[in-house]
Write a structure and sequence with these properties.
globular; 17 helices; D-Maltodextrin-Binding Protein, domain 2; 3-stranded antiparallel sheet
Length: 434
C-alpha cells in the first residue's frame, strides 16, 4: 500500500463514521432504504464454532430480505457456522475506508464496482472456486486480472441502458432509437405529438447523478467506439479534452429544444417515478429498480429497456455496465474456508435466481434462470456489447462528482460547454496526482 494512501486512510479514520457515504452511482435510487440499515443481523445457533462477519452495499429492504433468507437456509445446512450480516446503507463506503485504514475488514464484503482498483490488495484469490468457470463473458475480465486472480463472486452485473414507456413509443410509431440523433428525433416527435404533455427527458440538479449518468453513458458512445477510440489517450492522460465538448453541446441542444423538464434545478430524483407513471416523461436514464417504483404507482404500465444509442451511424448501441453486487473475501480472514463455503452457497443457481428476480439485474454467472419485468429485454439484447462504466476505467476516483456537478452548472447557464471540458481536464490532472 502506498504511503500516500495510508496517510489518506489515517486522516479519515476519526471522522468517516460520522460522515455520510456517497456512492458514485446509487444502486437503487428510487427505493427506500431499509429501516434496519447499519444494524447487524445475527444468524447462528448454539452449535456454531465459527462466525462470519459480512458487510454488503445493499439498500433495498426486499433485496436484504432475500440475502437474509439465503443465509438462514445456509445456517440450517451448516449449523457449525454463524453469520453476522450488516447493510450500512449510505455509510457503506466510509465504513469500508475506516476498516481498510485499520486493516480490519469483514470476512466477506461487497466491492460495489471497485474489486480491483480499490479493494484488490485486500482480497483473497478465488480462482480455484467451482463457480469461476461459470462467470459470464461480460463480467469475467472485470473481476479477473491479467495474472488470473479472481477477486470476487459476481452476484449480479449491470447492463444499464435507457428505460422507456413501451406503449408510448408504440403510440407514436417509434422504434427504440439506434443512434443519438434518432433518440433526439424520437423525443422531438413525442413532445410535439403529445401536445407538450410529455417532456421526454428528466434531470435533477438536486440529485446530480441523473446528469452525470448522461455523460457516463454517452462518453462511451462518443469516445470508445471502433471509428473513434480514445481509450489509450484517456488511460495515458494524453486525451484532447476539446473532444469532450461534443457531450455538453448535445445536452444543451436537448435543453434548448425543450426536451428536458423545466424544473430540472429543483426537481428531485424521487419525483421521476411519479412523472414517468403520469406519462410526463418518456425516457429514464436509471438502473432497473426504477421499474418497481413505477409499478407501485401504475401497475399496468409496461417499462422497457433499450441499449444506449450510438453516437455514430457507423457504430452500434451498447450497454454501460460492470460490477453491481459482489462478494469478496478478506485475504487475512481467519475464516476463509467457512467464507468460501458461504460464497459457494450463494453461487447456487436457485439462490442467484432469487436475487436476480428481486433486483432485476443480470446474474454474474451463466445458466441462471430469472423471470421478471426486464427478462425479455435482457434476452433480446443478449448479444449487445457491454462497455464498462466510463468513469471507473478512464477517470480517476472523484470524477463522477465533477461530471455531475459540472453538468448542473452547464444546464443552469453558469458555464459553457467549452468551460465544462476545461473543468474536466483540470480536475482529471489534479486527481491523478493524488
Amino acid at each position: 500500500m502506498s504511503t500516500r494512501w495510508k496517510v489518506s486512510m489515517a486522516l479519515i479514520l476519526a471522522s468517516a463514521l460520522a460522515a455520510s457515504g456517497c456512492s458514485q452511482r446509487p444502486e437503487k435510487p428510487a427505493a427506500q432504504p431499509s429501516n434496519s440499515s447499519g444494524k447487524e443481523t445475527k444468524s447462528t445457533n448454539s452449535n456454531a464454532k465459527k462466525t462470519l462477519s459480512v458487510m454488503l452495499n445493499i439498500a433495498d429492504q426486499p433485496v436484504q430480505d432475500v440475502y437474509r433468507q439465503i443465509i438462514n437456509d445456509f445456517i440450517k445446512e451448516n449449523p457449525d457456522i454463524g453469520v453476522n450480516i450488516q447493510f450500512p446503507g449510505s455509510a457503506y463506503e466510509n465504513n469500508m475506508k475506516v476498516k481498510m485504514a485499520a486493516n480490519d475488514l469483514p470476512d466477506i464484503f461487497d466491492t460495489h464496482g471497485w474489486a480491483q482498483v480499490r479493494y484488490g490488495e485486500y482480497l483473497a484469490d478465488l480462482k480455484g472456486e467451482p463457480w469461476v468457470n461459470q462467470m459470464t463473458d461480460t463480467i469475467k475480465n472485470v473481476v479477473t486480472d491479467k495474472n488470473g486472480k479472481v477477486y470476487v463472486l459476481p452476484i449480479s452485473e449491470a447492463k444499464d441502458g435507457i428505460m422507456y414507456n413501451v406503449d408510448m413509443l408504440k403510440q407514436y410509431n417509434i422504434e427504440p432509437p439506434q443512434t443519438f440523433d434518432e433518440l433526439v428525433g424520437a423525443a422531438d416527435k413525442i413532445k410535439k405529438e403529445s401536445g407538450g404533455k410529455t417532456t421526454p427527458f428528466f434531470f435533477s440538479g438536486i440529485d446530480e447523478s441523473t446528469i452525470g449518468t448522461y455523460f457516463g453513458y454517452f462518453a462511451n458512445a462518443l469516445l470508445i467506439n471502433p471509428a473513434n477510440n480514445s481509450a489509450e489517450e484517456l488511460l495515458k492522460n494524453t486525451f484532447d479534452w476539446n473532444k469532450w465538448t461534443t457531450l455538453p453541446d448535445k445536452l444543451l441542444d436537448i435543453k434548448n429544444r425543450g426536451l428536458i423538464n423545466e424544473d430540472f434545478l429543483t426537481a428531485k430524483r424521487s419525483d421521476l417515478p411519479t412523472v414517468f407513471a403520469a406519462e410526463k416523461v418518456a425516457f429514464a436514464l436509471l438502473a432497473p429498480s426504477f421499474v418497481d417504483a413505477v409499478h407501485k404507482l401504475k401497475p399496468e404500465m409496461k417499462v422497457g429497456l433499450m441499449p444506449i444509442p450510438a453516437m455514430s451511424a457507423n457504430d452500434k448501441p451498447s450497454f454501460s455496465g460492470g460490477e453491481r453486487s459482489t462478494m469478496g473475501i478478506w485475504k487475512e480472514s481467519k475464516n476463509i474456508p467457512e467464507a468460501k463455503k458461504l460464497m459457494s452457497y450463494f453461487a447456487k443457481p436457485d439462490n442467484l435466481s432469487k436475487i436476480a428476480n428481486v433486483t432485476k439485474l443480470q446474474p454474474g454467472l451463466k445458466g441462471i434462470e430469472s423471470k421478471h419485468d426486464l427478462t425479455e429485454y435482457y434476452d433480446k439484447y443478449a448479444n449487445v456489447k457491454v462497455l464498462p462504466y466510463f468513469d471507473r476505467v478512464y477517470l480517476p476516483n472523484g470524477m463522477w462528482s465533477v461530471m455531475s456537478k459540472s453538468g448542473t452548472e452547464l444546464l443552469a447557464g453558469r458555464i459553457t460547454a467549452k468551460e465544462y471540458s476545461e473543468t474536466m481536464k483540470r480536475e482529471v490532472e489534479r486527481l491523478r496526482k493524488n
